[in-house]
Amino acid sequence: MVSIDVQNASVDFPIFDAKNRSLKKSVLGRAGGHITDAKVPVVEALRDVSLSLRQGDRVGLVGHNGAGKSTLLRLLAGIYEPTRGRAKIEGRVAPVFDLAVGMDPEISGLENILIRGLFLGMTRKQMESRVDEIADFTELGDYLTMPLRTYSTGMRVRLALGVVTSIDPEILILDEGIGAVDAAFLEKARDRLRDLVSRSGMLVFASHSDEFLVELCDTAIWMDTGEIKEQGSLREVVSAYKGRDLFDSLSPETMRRLDLDPGASSPVTSNGSTTAPAATDADAAAKTEDETVGLP
Ligand SMILES: Nc1ncnc2c1ncn2[C@@H]1O[C@H](COP(=O)(O)OP(=O)(O)OP(=O)(O)O)[C@@H](O)[C@H]1O
């Protein structure tokens, strides 16, 4: 059984080569974790985070730039140890932060499929039995026998997405930023991502894309300056973060495909009013980013 239990965890980054802050002090910073005012400044990327996730959980992480989403994902993947507090992760974690990680430019696409699969916790035998299916999905044809360095960015993404979506993770940790594929291929990738998530024991997914959050997650966590600001149903939390109903931004096609009811009651705050907190400038910036990003 997979599980994640994080108790009062903090992650600090001391910055030994920070420059004099006198200039910066006059500038109001909105993005990023809290920075302590010490001789060696410390970025408090996560502060006192507690979290309990179980089999079947599909959690979206939202928050402005520098809010701590990637740091939390790395903590959950066991890449970072908490500076204070505890993090107990049970289950095989497949961390997908950067599609290019584990890819070797000097070996062929086919060889890269194998290597990347091993990186993600699969066995050689498992990968060998999936190579043909992945190769088909990428539509890269003869290029699969050529070194990866000869591929365009979009071709690399096709290959990497093909591998990543072929694995059987117990805990899938997914960071955003899987861009640069054309629209038709995006449709194919969307279906595979959905299948991948449905066979994973647990998903934690950081994204600025409403469409992908709705597609893959049912609950959400809103991170703000290193802390969990709100946790709950996807629609409620993302609507509170964005200052508008999450469903408003979805295309009619997505609403239909996911069988969502636009008329279902809008999220309300504990005092009964419709949630619409003032969005910060950083949130607005993140929002602009959302609307331009096609993939998570
Ligand atoms: N290796 C590092 N060294 C120093 N500071 C770091 C490091 N990694 C992250 N931080 C800081 O920790 C804070 C949280 O960063 P993190 O990358 O987790 O944010 P994020 O929510 O993923 O942001 P974004 O949406 O912009 O990707 C930021 O203030 C960032 O500057």
Automatic annotation (TrEMBL):
CDD domains documented for this protein: ABC_KpsT_Wzt
Domain spans labelled ABC transporter: 23-250
InterPro entries tied to this protein: AAA+_ATPase, ABC_transporter-like_ATP-bd, ABC_transpr_TagH-like, Bact_Polysacc_Export_ATP-bd, P-loop_NTPase
Residue ranges of the region described as Disordered: 257-296
Keyword Nucleotide-binding annotated: yes
Pfam families tied to this protein: ABC_tran
Keyword flag Ion transport: no
Gene3D superfamilies, sorted: P-loop containing nucleotide triphosphate hydrolases
Comp. bias regions, Low complexity: 274-283
Domain of life: Bacteria
Keywords for this protein: ATP-binding, Nucleotide-binding, Transport
SUPFAM superfamilies: P-loop containing nucleoside triphosphate hydrolases
GO function term, MF aspect, one: ATP binding
Family: Belongs to the ABC transporter superfamily.
PANTHER family, sorted: TEICHOIC ACIDS EXPORT ATP-BINDING PROTEIN TAGH
Protein known as: ABC transporter ATP-binding protein
